[in-house]
Specification:
The complex is a heterodimer of chains A (244) and B (333). Chain A is mainly alpha-helical. Helix content of chain A is 56%, strand content 7%. In chain A, helix 2 packs across helix 4 and helix 9 packs antiparallel against helix 10. The longest helix of chain A is centred in the first third of the chain and has 31 residues. By secondary structure, chain B is mainly α. Chain B is elongated. Classes of the chains: A mainly alpha (244), B mainly alpha (333). The interface between A and B is large, with 62 and 63 residues.
């Protein structure tokens, strides 16, 4: 396994620390880019649609005379979408955004809990500082230089970005073989995961992986000409020997 | 490891993995309660048992299966149970209400000495700028652009006919964007140990005072007051608030109250940052007033005064938490 990512460790009354892996500049940048595209498309979409409806023909031009309706219905909502996207979405999604979801990260307070509304707003107020001088230069620099990968907004708001781990799934137990002593815990996980992913794999990949696993853990070997159903059967026998 | 030790470890692992269903139930319960779905007391009580179960099993898995997906799953489930148990469900309505009713007024109260000082600095600078240009009118060149000076010398405010050049919508956006940037700049300038705040407030105060003195010398003071009063009450107050927030962060860096400067900066910035967000929203309103009301000659002076004072009172009410049911003063948590 690769070296563990740096993490936030929170004391617990049970004596067992809570450990949350910290997100680095890559995950942050990925989340930001996704969110930026979402808000830009939404804001632009509103502006274009609003302008077309307002003008009544194919034109995006503002009216020459002062008109509160143009500002209220076309300009202000588009600006609000663009500039208040992070504030509103992070509040509504408990410290997450669509981009952060896609990157598998979320915002937490230093005690590991969900940040307060004030902390989320403060964090976003500091985007102006972090975005200086261009392309989030200050923010990226501080993320790279600080131990916990923090931008200035995180330092000010007392927040961190951690990997969500929402997708961490418990492997389907390959318990029979494990109990029978043929597989160790890691082997049981590998076999179970391979069987879970079987339908999504290419036939060549299925055979190659099944052969590797059986060679390492199995007592039976297959022929290179066998079809992938035969390889799957062998894996299932390895996982559940009593059913075989 | 000897054979007995290995067999024991294997037996422990087997017994652990047999509890997978309990872990799944615990994880689902924590997730459900964190989202505020379900207020069954028995369910909440079971979460405490889940928490102990997950802690116990995670400790063993960390030892027995350190590089496994089982450990990853348990780490996540334990973290979720911990957060749910210690922080409860998140509800956006109550979070915002707490912010507006408790946190924002508390921040304003905490900043009140800084607000007084910032206002005093700004007021002194206005008086200083006024006195300076009143006595030496040629010094206006230090504070105002040649176009502004020429316009006033022609007996005309530079704001007259503004709407003939720029539509109100564009003007509002330009003004509110500029004001928000200036406000944030006044705040961030405070990070330079508070010196930046003094500089920004002082400079803006000097400019305002100087321009007022110059238009007064040319008999245009009433027109300028009429132009400023609708949007200026809140705009100038927000500038002082932003400066005060920045100065508080600056003082936290000079005299850290916490263990270190970074921690002290974090505490001060978290308290004052909320106020700054409110300031930015208030400036949006000011910008719209400056684009739609201030340059429009159809608004009479009394209407401008009424709008300006009402908006200022609204600002005070919002910052005091009164519209959100705030009753008694409470200390910061």
């Amino acid at each position: 396994m690769s070296e563990a990512a740096p993490g936030l460790t929170v004391d617990s009354v049970t004596g067992i620390d809570v450990s949350l892996p910290l997100a680095g500049p890559g995950a942050r940048a990925y989340a930001f880019l996704v969110d930026w595209h979402i808000r830009a498309i939404l804001a632009l979409g509103w502006f274009v649609l609003g302008a077309l409806l307002y003008n009544g023909h194919l034109s995006l031009a503002p009216p020459l005379s002062s008109d509160a309706r143009w500002f209220g219905a076309v300009v202000a909502p588009a600006l609000a979408i663009y500039f208040l996207y992070h504030h509103a979405v992070e509040l509504a999604m408990r410290g997450s955004t669509p981009g952060k979801r896609m990157a598998g990260v979320r915002i937490v307070a230093r005690d590991g809990g969900a940040p307060s509304a004030g902390a989320l707003l403060t964090r976003n107020v500091f985007r102006l500082v972090d975005s200086l001088p261009l392309f989030y230069g200050v923010g990226l620099l501080t993320v790279v230089l600080t131990r916990d990968n923090l931008r200035i907004g995180d330092m000010a708001a007392g927040t961190l970005l951690v990997f969500e781990q929402a997708e961490a799934r418990l492997p389907t137990p390959a318990g029979d073989a494990h109990r029978a002593g043929r597989l160790d815990a890691a082997g049981a996980e590998i076999v179970a995961e391979l069987l879970e992913r079987w339908p999504a794999l290419q036939p060549e990949a299925r055979v190659r992986l099944a052969r590797q696993v059986l060679t390492r853990y199995g007592s039976e070997s297959g022929e290179s000409g066998d079809d992938d159903a035969a390889w799957r059967t062998r894996l299932e026998r390895l996982a559940h020997p009593q059913q075989g | 490891m000897n054979v007995n030790g290995s067999a024991r470890q294997r037996a422990l692992t087997v017994s652990l993995l047999q509890r997978a269903d309990l872990w799944r139930q615990a994880e689902r319960r924590a997730r459900r309660l964190a989202r505020g779905r379900g207020d069954d007391a028995a369910d909440a009580t079971r979460l405490a048992d889940d928490y102990r179960l997950l802690a116990h099993d995670l400790a063993r898995v960390r030892m027995l299966m350190p590089d496994s997906r089982t450990r990853e799953y348990l780490e996540a489930a334990y973290a979720r149970a911990h957060a749910t148990l210690h922080h409860g469900a998140w509800r956006i309505g109550s979070a915002l209400l707490r912010l507006l009713r408790e946190e924002l007024p508390a921040a304003v109260r905490w900043l009140s000495p800084y607000i007084l000082w910032s206002t005093a600095i700004f007021a002194l600078a206005v008086i200083g700028g006024y006195a300076l240009v009143w006595r030496y009118p040629e010094l206006i060149a230090l504070f105002a652009s040649p176009d502004l000076i020429a316009s006033v010398e022609r007996g005309q405010l530079w704001t007259e006919g503004l709407l003939n050049i720029v539509p109100s919508s564009v003007l509002s956006v330009q003004i509110l964007a500029n004001n928000i940037v200036v406000s944030l700049f006044a705040y961030c300038a405070g990070f330079l140990f508070g010196l930046g705040t003094v500089y920004i407030l002082g400079l803006n105060g000097l400019m305002l005072g100087a321009v007022f003195a110059f238009v007064s010398l040319h008999g245009l003071r009433a027109q300028l007051l009429a132009f400023i009063v609708a949007h200026g009450c809140v705009e100038l107050s927000v500038m002082c608030l932003s400066g005060a927030a920045g100065a508080a962060v600056g003082e936290a860096l000079i005299r850290p109250a916490q263990a270190g400067r970074i921690e002290s900066f974090g505490v001060a910035a978290l308290r004052s940052g909320k106020l700054l967000f409110a300031c930015a929203l208030l400036l949006v309103g000011s910008g719209m007033l400056e684009g739609y009301v201030s340059p429009n000659p159809r608004f009479a002076l009394w209407a401008r005064v009424a709008i300006g004072v009402s908006y200022w009172l609204l600002m005070v009410a919002l910052l005091s938490g009164w519209p959100f049911g705030r009753r008694a003063r409470r200390p910061l948590p």
